[in-house]
Amino acid sequence: MMNYEQAMAFLESTKKYGSQLGLTSIVNLMHELNDVQESIPVVHIAGTNGKGSVGAMLSAVLTECGYKTARFNTPDVFSYEEEFLMDGRPISKTELAEVFTVVAAACERLVQNGMPHPTRFEVETAAAFVWFAGSGCDIALVEVGMGGETDATNLISRPLVSVLTSISMDHMNYLGDTLAEIAAVKSGIIKQDCPVVSMSQEPEVAEVIEKKCRQMHAPLFWSTSVVIENVKCEGGALSFTWRPESGPVPVQPGLRELCQIENAACAIRVLELLAPQYPRISVLSIKCGLEKVRWPGRFEKICSSPDVYLDGAHNEDAVRKLRATLDQNFPGKKILFIMGVLADKEYDKMIQIMFRPGDRVFTVTPPNPRALRAEALAELLCTQNIRAISCENPKDAVSYALYEAGTEDIILVFGSLYYLKEIRKAFEEKLSEQRDGIYQPAAEK
Question: Burial letters for 224-258: b for 16+ Cβ neighbours within 10 Å, e otherwise?
């Protein structure tokens, strides 16, 4: 039996097997694990943006109803254990070591039989299914890692519902160069005769989804059938009125970004389909669950005076929605930005959408091999009349931002999920120093 440190060392060792799209390896691995995934009622979630938020909403509501609700989502942001959740709580280190011990043994048997060692994500996916099956969960929410059709999670054969959140341009090196190509890969999670819920999509995406559903005889339900009105988004708060058949229901969701309206509609439509099998789902439980949901790093306010928000927007569509949220919430407010991105993202388009001439930006290099260097990002911003300086590390970026921000200003951190953990820690340390009276702001570069 491995301990936690040994389990994490095993996981780290799987990086050398790279990543691969395809189901052969995960199918072989799950056969070694007695195909435990077949016993788990699953909602399968794919899309470019909104997967995590929709999953968090569904988890909060189903937990509110008293159902034991499992969830698998990647990547982690603040701790590795948050990839594996039960009723919104991360897996314990002891449980993690137990399931990785089981999966590691299965991997070893595959290798002994002349088969390739599974990749890191395949190992994680298998670990999630082993944990879920052993826990006796009532339902599991499984988020696609990347794409859909060839993603390791797509060995799910009979999902309760297949969910497609907003589909846009991302991971083009793997998924395709057009929206239609990307949509074709993501709609690969649609299974024969299994219901599908999709958010509103671009016309070429909707066409692909509709065609796939016809081919698979899969009933298609659009989240636009959920009536939401009276949307208000100001001062960092969000509210709306949901109108089911029973009458208007005011909701103040725990997730506050403007795009969460679409995500909430999607989650509600999924819950309506699940209700016959999960009869404790009600209008009241949906309202309460949506208001209790928390999802770190998604327009998350971490401190006040100045108000600081973290958001993992890392592609064109997500940044456009984040910019709309800023414009709605903080008209006329001074906003300072901290930005770090990966080099394989369309960061030039993100810059065009987010910034205005004269904006102040502090750039950092995310801790990822694919990261764009802070210096290169700052140079690009400066060529577009944006006042940017590169910072050696997140702590420096936080120091500069706090030095320049007034108590009524806003600091927004965005661009990549991979550096939000370091940023949060840096803000906590700096604000603690301020409270203790020992913080000295950094000098201007």
Answer: eebebeeeebeebebebebeeeeeebebebbbbbb
